[in-house]
Specification:
The chain is α+β, with helices and mostly antiparallel strands. Helix content is 35%, strand content 19%. It is built from 17 helices and 18 strands. It has a seven-stranded mixed sheet. It has a three-stranded antiparallel sheet with strand order 9-10-11, with helices on one face. Helix 4 packs across helix 9 and helix 11 packs antiparallel against helix 12. 48% of the residues are buried. The structure holds flavin-adenine dinucleotide. The site of flavin-adenine dinucleotide has 30 residues, from strand 13 and helix 17.
Length: 467
């Protein structure tokens, strides 16, 4: 098996940039759903905990609201009780009920939807499916459902913002996604020593141990097809690699639009709903900011307006929410001694086909929003201490990784783009062409993408009569 990768390094969205001793994870910063990682490493005959030095991050996030209120999300329930009761008397009971529902959703969704092969109607439409739709509250909107648990918009936001990881607004997402805050609080948010890129390093090492070869800086410009089958790939330099089977992991819509012969599926994919994009700032800083935890999230007050701006108007909200990651708080080796490494991420709309977005202006505003939010919690001298800045936006995501529309999470997870209705892990016509990645079943996020890879591999093994 040969992996052919366009860029100079493995990992794609989960790659890492190093400069002057500062290490920046380019995309993912949170190792969530740890049991899924464990199961996928076990499926490779490996132990996640032996391969990676994982540390639990607790409190997981510090949430900062516009009025200055702070909520530390933590598995320490006594501390949660004190904080919640101060924000909204009686709300701790709401949290207990919400976590109980999240536990049920997690249990049902992981086996019933995430790990379930969905390549054929027979695999998906088993007798339990109707019961799942109801038990998982797939037809109930997440945000409106929150009124059962909390009254204040602050707390409703604190336990639904994770929907954006699925490319969804909580005002449209299914209530199923309470499984995410449940898992973050109960199973934990983790950090591998060396950053999220350590996951990629471990997987590459395992693959090499099984004889897999890696060709970096090697873009594919065509998946070759012959007689209804994939016969290999043509590289950008004109070389051809013959193959008995091809697994495509690049963004699915891009594969259909650029690597396969033209067909109506490419147009249909373009018309689907895509997740948001992100404006990211990577800063080397010449002094540490110990008051910043690993994950700080500034949640803007106009919660509904934020999602409208990002997902419908495809722009930057007037007053955006901002996420700041300080990896050296979780692993000191991510910054040189006496310095800091900071990442600011601002969710923004994906690229519009009419090209009407003024990216330099939006980027400048997003940067100002990160600095402005940080100043409200006392980090008010950052500009003077930034030694270098790297940034990326939707155009970079598109050009560097071939992400259609620059959407950082691929196809969104709205109901009509989930499970059996999400693109399958095998091409419907070229039966030896398999798909893995965020825009395929089961979906976006590092652990779920691992599942997609295993489902594609299992399908391949089944087709080829392999054990
Ligand atoms: C800003 C951001 C924050 C995120 N935060 C989190 C998080 O905290 N936790 C989490 O679990 N997930 C997070 N995610 C989501 C997660 O990163 C993705 O779902 C996952 O990494 C996608 O993996 P993939 O293999 O589908 O795609 P990619 O990582 O995009 O991999 C596809 C690969 O294909 C290569 N490629 C493309 N075209 C070609 C070609 N023609 N020839 C050869 N190679 C090609 C690309 O270079 C790339 O390496 C985040 C993503 C972003 C962008």
């Amino acid at each position: 098996m040969t992996v052919v990768e366009k860029n100079a390094q493995a990992g794609g969205r989960c790659s890492q940039v190093e400069r002057d001793g500062h290490r920046f994870d380019v995309g993912p910063t949170l190792l969530v759903l740890p049991h899924i990682y464990e199961q996928e490493f076990a499926a490779l005959g490996e132990s996640l905990r032996k391969r990676l030095d994982l540390r639990r991050v607790d409190p997981t996030y510090r949430l900062v609201f516009d009025g200055g209120e702070t909520l530390w999300l933590t598995s320490d329930l006594e501390r949660m009780r004190d904080q919640l009761e101060a924000l909204e008397p009686g709300s701790f009971r709401g949290l207990e009920a919400y976590l109980e529902e999240g536990r049920r959703h997690y249990g049902l969704a992981v086996d019933g939807l995430v790990r379930r092969p969905c390549s054929s109607a027979g695999e998906f439409f088993r007798p339990d499916i109707l019961g799942l739709v109801i038990s998982l509250k797939l037809l109930v909107r997440h945000y409106s459902h929150m009124r059962r648990f909390f009254r204040t918009p602050m707390l409703k936001a604190a336990f639904t913002f994770q929907d954006l990881y699925m490319g969804l607004s909580p005002f449209e997402a299914a209530a199923t996604f309470s499984m995410m805050p449940f898992s973050e609080l109960v199973h934990g948010v983790w950090y591998p020593r060396g950053g999220m890129y350590a996951v990629v390093g471990a997987l590459e090492e395992i693959a090499r141990g099984h004889g897999v070869e890696f060709a970096y800086g090697t873009p594919v410009d065509r998946i070759l097809t012959d007689n209804g089958r994939a016969s290999g790939v043509r590289l950008a330099d004109g070389r051809r690699l013959a193959a008995e089977a091809v697994v495509a992991n690049a963004d699915l819509a891009y594969v259909y639009q650029h690597l396969l012969p033209p067909d109506r599926r490419a147009r249909r994919l373009q018309a689907l709903d895509y997740s948001c994009s992100a404006l990211s700032f990577f800063w080397g800083v010449d002094r540490p900011y110990p008051q910043l935890g690993p994950h700080t999230l500034f949640l803007a007050e106009d919660y509904h307006g934020i999602f409208e701006a990002i997902l419908r108007r495809r722009t930057l909200p007037e007053h955006p929410s901002v996420y700041v990651h300080a990896p050296a708080r979780a692993d000191a080796s991510m910054a040189p001694p006496g310095q800091d490494t900071l990442i600011g991420i601002v969710p923004v709309g994906h690229l519009d086909s009419d090209g009407g977005q003024d990216w330099p202006e939006l980027k400048a505003r997003a940067r100002q929003a990160v600095l402005g939010h940080l100043a409200t919690i006392g980090v008010d001298d950052l500009s003077a201490h930034i030694t270098f800045e790297i940034s990326s936006g939707p155009i970079d995501w598109r050009d560097r990784l071939n992400l259609v529309n620059g959407s950082t999470h691929g196809l969104s997870h709205k109901l009509t783009q989930m499970a059996y209705l999400r693109p399958h892990n095998r091409h419907p016509r070229f039966r030896n062409l398999y798909f893995a990645g965020a825009s395929t079943h089961p979906g976006t996020g590092v652990p779920t993408v691992l599942v997609s890879g295993r489902l594609a591999a299992e399908r391949l093994a089944q087709d080829w009569g392999l054990p």
